[in-house]
Structure formats: structure tokens, C-alpha cells
## 1
Amino acid sequence: EVYFKNLSKQKQKEVMEKNGNNQKLRVCVATCNRADYSKLAPIMFGIKAEPQFFELDVVVLGSHLIDDYGNTYRMIEQDDFDIHTRLHTIVRGEDEAAMVESVGLALVKLPDVLNRLKPDIMIVHGDRFDALALATSAALMNIRILHIEGGEVSGTIDDSIRHAITKLAHYHVCCTRSAEQHLIAMCEDHDRILLAGCPSYDKLLSAKNKDYMSIIRMWLGEDVKTRDYIVALQHPVTTDIKHSIKMFELTLDALISFNKRTLVLFPNVDAGDKEMVRVMRKKGIEHHPNFRAVKHVPFDQFIQLVAHAGCMIGNSSCGVREVGAFGTPVINLGTRQTGRETGENVLHVRDADTQDKILHALQLQFGKQYPCSKIYGDGNAVPRILKFLKSIDLKEPLQKKFCFPPVKDNISQDIDHILETQSALAVDLGGTNLRVAIVSMKGEIVKKYTQLNPKTYEDRLELILKMCVEAASEAVNVNCRILGVGISTGGRVNPREGIVLHSTKLIQEWSSVDLRTPISDALHLPVWVDNDGNCAALAERKFGHGKGIENFVTLITGTGIGGGIIHQHELIHGSSFCAAELGHIVVSLDGPECLCGSQGCIEAYASGIALQREAKKLHDEDLLLVEGMSMKKEEVVSAAHLIQAAKLGNTKADSVLRTAGTALGLGVVNILHTMNPSLVILSGVLASHYVNAVKDVINRQALSSVKTVDVVVSNLADPALLGAASLVLDYTTRRIY
């Protein structure tokens, strides 16, 4: 260690001699907004404290100079920095074009400033569009650039801007080991990369304001306690402005419902920021008793506010970076920070598309205390950066050199791998058959295997494993890459644990069965399990009539009656996984007995078993067969015979079917009055026989406000298998909350 310290001192001495003993390094620091100043200020203080080595020129531009964003240039003056130049570079507007015009305006104004200052090096921070203008100007004017926080990965256009600045910059200060590796992978010279940590952590980790309560009360009110308020900071996502505005609206709705004192900061200057402010005002946030809406909070006070908050919510990089230093819970919404390294205090809600989802996240996070994280720094970044600046040799060639990795000849790819199809193994456990299929991402059943469902638990599980292993082996031959296993089964299922809690009477020895563990252990694949009715609804959502529909219900009409409910694009399971047992909606108090033990359920009227029961009664009374029908002596009477008899004019059979259709229709009316879906999908072998009867009952019995519902017959051949596949395909191909 002593050797390397002496070596470093010797190098600095040599650099000073090369640069001229009395020559100071002229450093220009350009700051564009409140966020980048919080990172640049510690460096500026460090430079100012060593006048024997450095001359500091400060250039202020961007949102610092806009009243709508708090005129934050004043905090730079309050920190006793002389501002050399103020550049008004923001073009007012609410779309992407305004950002482009702002970059253009900055490019027009900056050359004159840089010609006058003639800095040896310019320090540029981050990934804002203003910073891109600064780096472009300096690079074209042959001014060395030191880029702070390069190599990081987040979301939206910020990634592209950050990496573009990296390519223009001559020196790099990064915050994490991963960022350093990314810079090296981007062919930057390792000798010009400094792993220093985040400069703001120098201030964060030394912040010991004993009078933090006065700060909290000043911004949130006299009656607020520590850990009992929320800090919200959300910015528009410039690559999807419309969605980010909607997400902000849902966030505010969730915060209003959560009913805690909340400090809301205005968003950054970006396309869409004005619309976000309009949303705030539309919802009355600035006058709501639980909210305090502010344009700017000084960084040292902001530190204290987030350090003692019950939670921080939004999509600011501050949430996933700085707040981890205090262990404050954070809810990161959307994709703006996707890819950032985070501590365990951050809960990601990638698809923040419902108020309930955000509200649930608040309930999970609010008031917790996590271990403090130092992913982004240890509090000693500034001394390292100053030392790095002193080591820069101005006599070295200005032209950048890129360190490209060696390129091997004859690089090729296997065409089979290119054409490989992402697929799922789907398992359908029915009352009669056990089916396994390979299902592609597009819903194509590539290969299907069918066996009779064994009567005992041991035989059934053994057969499932055997069929799955066989199908997984075959997947290689048909160029399918299996992502996981989805299982559709009758009965009540706990999908979180992959356990069948209670079975229907159609599947024996099938209660308290852990399906996930043995299948996952045997195949080394993730396994998802759900009820067959829920799977049918998922199949419709991904591949059928329910695609893109926010609220719909699926009813399966087969051996039994089941179904699934999609509400706000999400499947409803219920508190004890018993939601959507639609077959057991009671439509008559003194109706026939159901297999569940109750009376008058839809299933007791309209299921295949119920129709078979009525067919047998008619057959026993010699009232089933009509002209054109025949049955072999050993043939079992089934629902199909009843349907055939009704088609051939048997009034008794037709009456049974009409009663069954009416019972199903009444159940659908109850569903419409409870859930108010926009679509009802009838699935299963009996669906086409019931659809007209259901529509008639809706027209007669339903409230006028729900009569406009669409009732359609499913066009999916295998909804149970496709639904089981969608369990896998939906989860493994998107990151969900």
C-alpha cells in the first residue's frame, strides 16, 4: 500500500512538472437541474477547497433558471459559488420536439461560452438531454470531458443518452463495480475509468442533522411524525409519455386512498411534465389536506425528509440510489429505472397499471426499516475524484482510444438455435383424461399426449412425471425451448404454493397435493399450478376473445361448470383461492342436489353430469328415444343422447335443455350484476347449445345497464391446455409485480 501511495505521489509530481509547476487545472462544471447539482456540488466544494491545484468555472443552464421548477440556481449561489454564465436553454413545450429544440438551443449558445472560458476539462453528469448538448459541444471543441455516473443501466431514453456521452467523454467516474465493467465492455480505456462511488453519498453518509424534526414540520406540517409520511417523486417516461401520465394518475389515486401525509415534488423538465402537473391540479393535490406539493427542496433538507420517511414512491433514480443509504422503503414504479442496481429496500412495480397494485405495494412497504445499503458509495468519492483530476496529463493526445476486444474469425450461429421456439409444457388434469402438450408462444399445440387419468394419487403423479419427461425430451427434436410447466386441474388450488387444496369428486385422492415440488425437481423447470376454470380465463386473455379486454368472465360448460374472472386485466383468485366457483351459484332454493352437497346450483342443472342424469330418467321411462335415434344395449346414456333427442323433436329433452340454459342464464345475470364485465365467454362442449338461451335470459332478467354485454362462444379448441401454457408464457417473458 505504501509503495502504491508513493507511486501515485510520484505520478502526480510528474504530471505537475509536465503541465507546468504553476499551471492550475481549469475545470468547468456545468449543471442543468436540481438532481445533477446534488451530485456535482460535493465535487465543486472539493475543487474550491484546493485553489492551488484548480480553477473552477460554473455554468448554469436548463431547468435551474425556470421559475416553474423553483429557480434552483439560487441554491448554487447560497452555496457561495460564483456562477460564471447563465444560459437559458429550455424551449417550452410538452412533447419530444421541445427536448430536441432545447438541445439545439444549448448547442447554439455553448460554443461562445466555452471559447471564453477555455477550460482544460469539463465535468458532465448523468444522462439528461442537456448533458448531451454539453458533451457534444465540448467534444467538438477539443475540450476534455469527465463524465460522472457513466456505465449505469436504467430505462427509457436515458440509457441511450448516457452511453452516447460515454462515447464522447475522455475520462469516466463510475459508482459501482457493474458500471465499471459496462464501461470496459463498451471499449473504454480502463486506465481512464475511476471507480469512485457516487459523490452525493459523501454528503448522505455524513448527514447528522439532529434537528430533522424542524425540517419535517416545515415541509409537511406540525403534526407529522417520523416514519409516518410519504415522499413522492415521479417523472414522465419520454419513450411512453401517455402511459407514464396514466401511471402518475393511478399513483395519486392510490396515495389519496392510502390517506397518509405526502410530500409531492414536481417532475423534471421532460416531455410530458406539464401534463403531469395538470393531473396534480385536476385532482386538487395542491389543496388537499394530506398533500404538500413543492417545486424544489434543498438537497440537505431533502436528505433528512427521505431518511425519516415511512416510504418513498415514484420513478426517480434518487429512490433506487441515494435512499438506500438510509434503509427507507422505496416503491419504484414502471420501467424508468429498470436495470439499476438496488438494495433490498426497493420494491419494483414494473407494470403499475392499476390503483390496487400500487396501493398494495404501499401497504407492503410503508413504515418498514431496511438495512442501509452502500451499493453506490462509501462516502469517499470526492477525494478519489480530485486525485484522479490531478493525475490528468494535459500533454497526452486528446484523441480517444477505444480498447476493442479481439475478434475471432469464423463466428457462426447454429440455425437450430436461431429458429428455436420458446414454449411451455402444459398439463390438463381432467376427470377422465390426463393430457400433456408442448405449446408455443403463439398458442400453437406442437405436440400432444393423452392418457386415461389414473384413480390413485401415486399412479397419477407417476404418469404426470413420465409424460412430462417424454414431452420435454421430444421438445428438443421439434426445436422448442421449454420455459416451464403449467398445470390446469380441477378443484381449489393455491397457485402461490402450487398445491391442490381440495379436489372435485371427479378426481379422487387429489386433496392437499403438492404438484410443484416433485415436477420441478424432476424436470429442473419452474412449475405453475391453477384451477382449470382460471386457466380457461387466462387462455382467453392471451389467445382468445378476451385479448385486450379489461373485464370479462369465462364460463366452462362441460362435465361440471367452472369459470374464471378477469378484472382490470388480472385474474381474481380470492382470499382463500375460491373465487369464480361459478358453477355453484345458486339459482333455485329447491332445485336438484349438486355434487357440492347444496341444492339448486347452476352445475346441478347445466353440467354434463346433470344432463346425463336427466337423460337416464327419460330413458328409464322410455321417453328418450325418438324416430331417427338408436342405442346399443350396452351403450351408456349420456348428455349427447339428450341433445340429439332434442334436435329430433323430443319435447321432453328440449324442455330439459331449456331449463338448463335458463339456469345458466340466471347465473350469468348474477355475475353481470356483481362484476359488470363487458364480455362473457362460454367455453366447453355445451357452450354452443346454451349461448342463445343465456342471451334470452339476460334480455328478460338483467338490469338495462348490463344488457349490452357481449356473450360469445369460445373459439379455442383446448382452453385448459392453452391456459396452463399461458401461466408459464406470461410469467417467464415479462417481469411482473
## 2
Amino acid sequence: PQEILSEENEEESNGVNLMEFSDEILLHILSYVPCTDLVLNVRRTCRKLETLCLDKSLTHTVLLQKDYKVNKDKVKQLMRDIGKEIYQLNMAGCYWLPSSTIDHVTRCKNLVKLNLSGCHVTSLRLSKMLSTLQHLRSLAIDVNPGFDASQLSSECKATLSRVSELKQTLYTPSYGVVPCCTSLEKLLLYFEILDRSREGFMLSGQLMVGESNVPHYQNLRVFYARLAPGYVNQEVVRLYLAVLSDRTPENLHAFLISAPGSFAETGATKNLLDSMARNVRLDALQLPKAWINGSGLLQHLKFNNPFYFSFSRCTLSGGHLIQRVINGGKDLKSLTSLNLSGCVHCLAPESLFRKAEDDIDSSILESLVVSCCNLRHLNLSAAHHHSPESIGNHLCQLLSRLKHLLSLALPVCSITDVAANVEKPPTASNLVPQTFGRKVRIGIQTYPRNLVDQANQKIESTVFWALMGSLRFLETLEIIGSSFSSAMPRNEPAIRNSLPPCVRAQSVGDSEVAAISQLTYLQSLTLAQLPNILTGSGLIHIGLQCQHLRTLSLANLGMMGKVVYMSALMDMLKHCKCLRDLRLEQPYFCAGAQFFQALSHCSSLQRLCIVSRSGTLQSDAVMSFMANCLEVIMCHMFMGESLTVCKNLQQSIVRSFQADRPALNVVIFPLLHEDLTEVIRDVPMRHLDEITLFKSRVAEEPPNLWW
């Protein structure tokens, strides 16, 4: 016994004591701990940690934007303890904190950067706070109905006059604080104004009385505007642009306007673009499609060292892309992000007589790959990019040369192995109708019994398999059907019918999904409208191999009349320990006890969204899941259940868990109910934009647009 005891003591003495690590290593470890935990908990454990937790490297920048457990009292204590040490404070999306929380920010006298997007801030509170922040140079705020610039004090306006970076989200027609910011170098505008009030009255894009002050753009270097659907947003952004059209800032190097649908060019905007062509050299460009289509604008614009281009939904042909933008490969090594989403002719020499389904010109894509060899983000979704049959010219083969890619979005039909499709005739599974109608019995299918058999059946020589193998460091991947449209609305009723998938995409299924499992560092995956998913076995491979996966979005996989991949999905979820966001969109989805039991293995899950026409849910299973998964703060379900069932479940979840989860946001509502759009408008913008609404997010904005 004494020998055993001495051996145990020896093992203990040889054990690793965390406190024996160097300060540098400990500081690196502590940098992964939320600041509220460091200051309010960890530093109270011992003297050494008390000193380290207050190190400037940990208190200089405080990020609360994803700290869903933070509440008003914690913020108050945090500001009291380290307020003077904070130089950068990010509270973006903290919608659950009461507006009085903002009062405590006044303790941060040395603040240089402050992000309050998504927080409740009145004009008077903003004025009081900014009056004390004399060193502020970067600010992000929301402008809500009732905002009154006349309530801003002279001290507040003095602070704003020194602000060089402003991000402003508008929920009402207003200039906000822009006229007060006389030193602006970067201006980001997000227009989220609805066309109708809650009472049903039509809104006007005219600014409120007393808001006729002119913005100051003379020092502007970056102008970015993102518009939500609606004519009022277009009216208001034109007022912001009117000043730019009079005199274009000579230092402007990034000009970006993201507008859905049709946003017509006017005389003022044409003058602005002509002035830009004469006077500035750009590094980043994004314009509404109507401003580019059919014009020679790109031929006249001058570029310096461009890092971002977006020609989303433009009719730009590949010939024009090569001649006018890539310019024979000159000066394009600097380009790191390119968005060609919905640009249906961008890989064809001309668009006049071309059908969208015609084969691409591989030489154009090859020129693009060679010229832009340092691309990190590339979006080619929402178009039919069909590769020719010639060997070595497949889209996947050409893209495999882009070794620096971190995010990639492709249409489903672009990853089809053309040679394989030519050699083999259509199988019975290819002939299954992709509709909501009656299921057709086509005979007994034979599927592999286990993962080993399935792996042996993989054709690892396919071009998509090779592409996935070459992009080892890819973090974000989107494979989206070129004709896919989500049933989840923005400002309109839910979509009841969807277009059939592209014929070339009919063979894309489980083996292609399994190929994705080669992406060891994958963090975000979107799969939508993959018709030939038969068992979903590829999902299990991803769950086993992609251990860093944080975001998963699956939509309309396999037959539309049945969720054929449910068993595989449940097996996959048992391995997704890092998964934080899960979005599922599939008709007839059954959110029952087995599904939620499997989902409970995702111990890190924070947000869940299910969109399912004619889908069903089991209330007891949902409640049990919420009780087991303590990190979940968002539960959105838009199903086929009755309004009564949905309301009762929503109330039960809020009543049971709101007290312990201050950020809890629950929306359970019938998908096809006429009041769905009214419910959607109350969803916090953070959740709506990041998960609830389906969209391609690759190269959506320039990298590092805001911190």
C-alpha cells in the first residue's frame, strides 16, 4: 500500500499545474473566455488570475455581441470595474438589454470604437452618452421611429464631429446623426424601413421636418448602403446619394450599394457615376444591376488595387468581365473577394443569344482563376454553370487551383461530373418526380448497410471529390440549387410553390455530400435543393469528420414529399458538438421526440430554425429539448400546425425559460398564416439576417467591412 501511495504522490507531483504556465500562455488561454466571466468570476479565484484578467490585452476590447448570458446587472458591474480600461466596446445585437443599460457606457471615458447596432437607444440617451465620450472615432447605432436629432446636445454633436466611421441602421426615414459627423471617412448604411406601418398606413420616403441638414462627405473613403426590399428604402437612399452626386469625394476608394430587385438609375445617380469615372480610383465596387446592365460604365471606371467586386444579379457577360474588369489579368492579384451570384452569363463570352442553361466557356473561368489567384471568397451561386464535356475544363477542376479559398458558393448543377453522366443512363432514382404530389412506387432500392460499404461505393475520382480534397482550408461552403427559393418570406407571404431543380443537378446526391467531409476545417455548410439524396448517408460522414462545424443549413433535400434523410441527420447531429446554428427547411418535416433527442447531443447549440410546409411538431419534445440544451436562446419554428398549438407552445417556452435566458427569442407560427409578415418584423435583426431568412452569404459584403 505504501508503494502505491508513493506512486500516486509522484504522479500528482508530476502533474501539470495551470498556474505554472507563463503569463503569455495564460493570457492566450484567457483570451478565449468571455470578458464578463473574466472580470466577474475568474479573477476572483486567485491573486495571479486577478492580475492577469485585468491585463490590458484582455480589457482593451470587450465583445458582448454574442454573450447571450449577459444582463443589465453584469454590464453595470463590468463597466464599474474596468470601464476606464475599455477602448473598444461591441454590444451589437444585444436586443434583450433594456435601454437604461446604455447609461453605464458613460463610464468608458476612453472609448474609441462603440457598436450599439441592435440595441435600444433613444435620442436623449444617445446624447447623454456621447457627450462624455470625447475620444470616440467609430460608432454604430440604430435609428428608430421617434428619433429626433434636435435633442442632441452641443457636447454630443462635438463628439460626433470627430467620428470618422459610422454605421447606421435605419428603421425610419431619417438622416440620423450623419449631418453631425463632419469628419466621416467610412459610412455604412443599412436601410430596413418598411413600406407600411403596423397600422397599415403607407409610409413616405421623405425625411422628417428639421432633417434637411446636408451630410458631409468631403473626406469620405468608403460608402456602403444595403437596402431591404421596399420602395421607401430606395427613396431614402437617393437622398443620401444626392449630396454625393454634387461633388464626389476625391479620396473615395470603395463604393458599394446592395439593392434587391429593381433600383432604377436616375439622372443624379448617372452624374455620380460619371463623376466617379473621372475623378476616383476604386478598390471595391458593388452597384444595383440596373446601373450596370447595358451601360459602358465598367469600361470607364478606374481601379487601384481592388480587393472586392460584386456583380450580383447583373447580366454582365464573361467577355465584358474579362475585358473591362479583369483587364487581361493586370492588377487583379489584390482581389480577395468576388460575388457573381445570379450573374447568369458571367462565364459565357456573350449573353445576347445565349440560354442560361448552355455550357460555360471554360477559357473565361480559367482567365478568372489565373488573374485572381489570391481569391479567398467566391460566390457563383444562383446560376446554371454547366461544364462542357472536354477533359480538364470542368468548373471544379479549374476552381481547385484557388488554394487560398476560405469560402465558396456554387450551384448544384455546377458540381455534376459530366463524363459520369454521359456514360451512365438515367437510373430509377433520377426519374423520381421532385414534386409534392403522390409518391410513385418505383421498386425496392438497395442501400448500403453501413458507412464502410457506403464509403467503398464512393467514386473518389469525381471532379467534385477532387475539388473538396484540394480546398483543405475551406471554412464556408454553400451548394445551392440554381432554381431554389426559400418558403420563408421577407416582406411578402410565404412561397407556396418552388421551381423544379435543374436537369443537370438530378444526379447530385449522397456521394457528393460525403465528399464534403474532406473539409476538416469547415465551419459553415449550406445545402439546398439536392434532388438525388436517397438516404442522407453523406451527412454522417460530415458529422464525423468536420468537427469544427458551427453552422448548418439544409433545405429541400431529396424527394419533396418525404424527409428521406431524417435517420442520417439524427446520426449526424450526435457528433456535432460545436454546432451553434441549425436551420432546416423541408416540407413534411416531423419535429418529434426522436429528432429532438438527437439534437440534444449538440451541447453548444444556440439557435434553431425550422421552416416546413405541412410540417408537424411535438410540444412535449420541444419543451424537453429546451430544458436539456441550456445554451439555446433562439427557437424559430414555422410549420403546418394550428395557430393555437403554436401560440401555446411559444408561451410555454417563454414562461419556463425566459428568466434564466435573458436573450431568449421564441417564434412559433404557422408558415402559411396571413399574419406571418407581421410576426417576422418583430424578430431581432441579428437572428433574422443571420439564420431565419435563407440567403447566400459568401462574399455578401467586403471582408472586414466592420469589426
## 3
Amino acid sequence: QEPFVADEYIERLAWRTPGGGSRGGEAFDPKRLLEEFVNHIQELQVMDERIQRKVEKLEQQCQKEAKEFAKKVQELQKSNQVAFQHFQELDEHISYVATKVCHLGDQLEGVNTPRQRAVEAQKLMKYFNEFLDGELKSDVFTNSEKIKEAADIIQKLHLIAQELPFDRFSEVKSKIASKYHDLECQLIQEFTSAQRRGEISRMREVAAVLLHFKGYSHCVDVYIKQCQEGAFLRNDVFEDAAILCQRVNKQVGEIFSNPETVLAKLIQNIFEVKLQGYVKDQLEEHRKSDAEQYLKNLYDLYTRTTNLSSKLMEFNLGTDKQTFLSKLIKSIFISYLENYIEVEIGYLKSRSAMILQRYYDSKNHQKRSIGTGGIQDLKERLRQRTNLPLGPSIDTHGETFLSQEVVVNLLQETKQAFERCHRLSDPSDLPKNAFRIFSMLVEFLCTEHIDYALETGLAGIPSSDSKNANLYFLDVVHQANTIFHLFDKQFNDHLMPLISSSPKLSECLQKKKDIIEQMEVKLDMGIDRQVEISISILTLNCMIGQMKHILAAEQKKTDFKPEDENNVLIQYTNACVKVCGYVRKQVEKIRNSMDGKNVDTVLMELGVRFHRLIYEHLQQYSYSCMGGMLAICDVAEYRKCAKDFKIALVLQLFDTLHALCNLLVVAPDNLKQVCSGEQLANLDKNILHSFVQLRVDYRSARLARHFS
């Protein structure tokens, strides 16, 4: 038996044999085990022979049965061929009979069709005679339950009567027409009653009969009218219309043979009656009195109408349902959309002007006229103001005249205008209309608000000799930068999608570029080096002027030539403390107000001029030994302040100035050694000499001799 393992089989045989289970033990008998193996081998040989004979016998039997089976298959194949022949003969016979039957059927039909027509004509003549006699006796006309058959007959008689001459058959034609009209009215009344009862099958039967009558369209009108009874009871006419159309769509296919035409007619009736009346009531109320509400209502109604149209696209309305629904929407809104953009621009202009005026009124500020012109005109005005003595500046009382609230309101109004423009504008007019809205935003946000604030800020920069200079212009720069980023975001998010694939894109980008250039000129954003220095110098002059004022007011001559050389208790002078405090505040303000390379550009200019101011200031005094030490301490503090600039050139200038101040205290014998040091070796000898001359002991023969 499977699975067979020879080792296990031998092992079991050994265990079953007495004396064969314990190798090496006392009970182990190898002879007996050998004898058992020999006997078992003989038994296996006998079994193998017996099985072999049985296999041979089975093989012979299998071969015999295979021959018998092959013979039987051959006999079946012959029988199948005979049967196939019989089937072919039967098929040919059936085809022959079918051909005869078809031919006979054609002959019968050829005989029967004229006969049926003759019978039908005879019946029509009978009914026609009744109309000639003026008395309708047939049951089909008198029995109200046979209205369907009567309708079929009268419809045929009506067609026949139209072919008859009027002079001879005028009376009978009028009778047939009257009966035709009566039956038509009865059918429509029956359809109406069935609709009210909700009997779909009866409605389908009557509609099928009326299909051949002239009043079939009236039947459809009745159905449409009754469908709308009680359908518009809520305030949301659009939702009611969608629900009604969905309900009718399920029903109309069970009643009419042309359901798509009936459903389209229902939708047309809803649009031209219900929706058009509702839209007119909502818009005409505010059209002339409230532009804001008018635009909101127009956008809302148009959006809801297009959404309803999208829902109706799911239904079968014929071949070109998109064009059909578009024409219906256009018929409702065409009178409002023709002049939409004019209303939009007019509202946006008045609304933006009101937002700005309300802001300036809250500040008790009367707007003044500002300079106009392009970039070149602006550059020329700034150049002239930079190079000429500054006149009296305008005091803004610290007001930047820039408001985040105003900007958010203007951008929000424009955003809504862009959304309305996208929805309400014709695709061909969309880029042009969007550009007009963008122009309004540029006019009121960039020109009337940001540009006005910059002009006012520039005019409010105090002169360099002002004793109390508050540099509010940097606050203007900071706020203007923030506002312009918001403006740029709206440009990318709301305007670009409307003009991206039109020629107006390049025009808008150019307009934006011009705005950026004009703003950056005034914001010191580095478009033009000459303009940048011109604008910066207006502010930096003021800063330097304020530092001069501090030094003049706080620095005393006795600071560097104290009366008691042995009783100096301060580490640096009061003037140095105040100047450093002022400079640190201005550096922080510049970093907060500007970004990018503009910060480094302005700080470098300020640092160089700060160094020149301190250098020239130190040249005004004479220094004793202790005064020279105090000057070194002051310059060390100035140098520490210069590190905040993070400009290598500025720090290098103050390092050199600090080294020059060492000449004020060094011993006369060491002057030449100090002057030849690393920081002073490359300086002009006149500069070194000018500092040595500031020492109170300069005129001593010993000092002059050593320096020479």
C-alpha cells in the first residue's frame, strides 16, 4: 500500500519475527531472522507471479473490449451517415413545401387584400350614406363605449370628405366635420378625466386614438397643464420644476408614442411661463433702484437656471438637447445679459469709490491731487527732488493712508464681479469683460489707494535737517508690499482662468507689468538703480539728518577732553547710546518693510553714510588720553551696531575707523608701528595724519617728530 517505504517494511518484519527485535541482546537469533527473510522473499516472489498473471489476463480482456468498442463505433458512424442523408432529403422536401406555401400565401393575400379593402370601403360607404341621410343609426356612433371605433371611422370619413367637391357635398362635409370635432372633444375630455383619475392605461389608449387627429397637440397641452397643477406650491420654483420633470419623465413614456417631444414641450412651457415670470419679478424690482441686489439676483437666478438645465440633460429630449436648453435659457435672460457688463462696471465703480471715500472720511482726510504720468515722469520728478534742496514736507501725523480692511473689501467686490462675469458673460466676450473689471481694480486699488498712499508718503518724508524725523514712509512700504501680494494672488486665482486662452492675456500681463514697475519704483523694489537710490536717499537723508541732530544735541566737547582725567566713570558717551538705539530701530524697520535684495541695497547705503557721519563727527573734536579711550569705546559700540547690518563692507569700514581711533591714545614711540599695521597700512597718509592731529599733545615736538 502507498506510501511504501522499504526500510520501514523490513523493520516491521524483523520486529514481528521472534528473536529478531533486539540486536546484540540475549534474545537475538540471527539464524531465525535469516530464515524468516528467506521465507518472506519466497512468499513475495509467489505473490508477484500471481499478480503478473492477473495483469496479463486483464490486458487481454482490455484488448478484446477495445476491438469490440471500435467495431461498434464504426457501425454507429455508418448509421449516422444514413440518418444525415435522410435529414438532408427531409430538409429539401420541407423547403419545397415552404416555397409552395409562401407562394400560396402570396396568392391568397393578393386576393384577400382587395377583398378587405372592398369590405372596408363598403362599410365606409354605409356610414357615409348615414351622413347623407342625416340620421346616424349604426351602433358604433350611438354606443359611447365604442368611441374608439367611431373615432377611427370618422377620421377616415373626414379624409375622404376633404377630397369631395364642396358644391355637391357641402352639407355632408359639414356633418362629418361636426362629428369629427365632437369626437375629438370627447376623446380629449376622456383623456383629461383619465389623467385626473390616474388611469395610465386609459390615457395611453385615448392618446393612441388622438394621435391621428388634428387635436392631438391639444391633448398634449391638456396633459402639460394638468401636470403643473399643484406642482409649484413651494418658494423654490427651480426645485419644484426639477421634481415635476423627473416625475413626468417616468410617466410620459407609458402614455405617448413620442415621449421626448412631450417632455420637451413641458420643459419649454415651464421655462417660458413659470421661470420667465419668476425671473422678471425678481429682477425688475431692483433693476433701476439697487444695482448690487440686481446683480446678486441675476447671478443667483442664472446659476440656478443653468443648474436646472444640467439636471434636465439627463432626460431624453431629442437629438440636440444642449442647444434646445441653451435657447430656452437665452430667451429668459437675453434682455438682462445684453447690458450686464455695463451694470457691473457702473456698480463696481460707484461701490469702490464709496469704500475709499468712507475710509478717508473716517480719517478726516481730504484727498489731494497727486502727480500723474508714466514711469519716466515719475523718475524725473524723483530725480529732481533728490538733487534739489527739499521744500517743506507734508505732515501725515503718522498715518500711512493704507487700510487692510479697504483692500479686502475692494478685492472681495472684484472677486464677486469676476465670478459673475464668468457665469453671465458670453464666451466670446468673457476675456474683454474680465479685462474691464481688472481695469477697475487697478484704478481704485492700485492708483487711487496704493499709489496715492505712496505719493503722500513720499511727500511726507521730512527733510534731512529735521530735528524730529519720523520715518513713516517705511511703514507705507511694508503695507504696500503686503497689499500688492494680495492683488497679485487675486490676479492669478480669479483673472487668469478667464483670460488664459485669449489675446487679452498679453494685454493684462502688460498692464500688470506696468503696475508692478510703477509700484516698485515708488517702493524701492530695485527696478532701476537710479530710481532706487533716488527714493532711498529721500528716506536715508532723513535718517542721517536725525542722527546729526542727536549728535549735535548730546555730544559735548568735554566728553573727549575731560577736566578730571582720573575720574571718568562712563563706558561710552550719551550721544553714542542714543545714536545706536536710533540706528538699530531703523535697521529693524527697513528689514520689516522690504524684502529680497532691496534690504541689502538700502542697508549698505545707510551703513556707508552712517560711517561717514561718525567719521566726520569725530574729526570735530580734540582728544586727551582719556578722551581718546572714550572715543575708542564709542566707536566699538558703533561697530557692534554695524554688525546688525550684516553687510561686510559696513563692518570693514567701522573696523578701520576703530583702528584709526587707536592713534588717539597710542604712545608716540609706537605711532609708526601702529600706522604700518594690517588695517592702516593701505590708508592714505593724510588720513592718518588728520587723526593724529586731533590729539591734544600733537603740537609737542616729540609727537610731531615721531609721526614725521
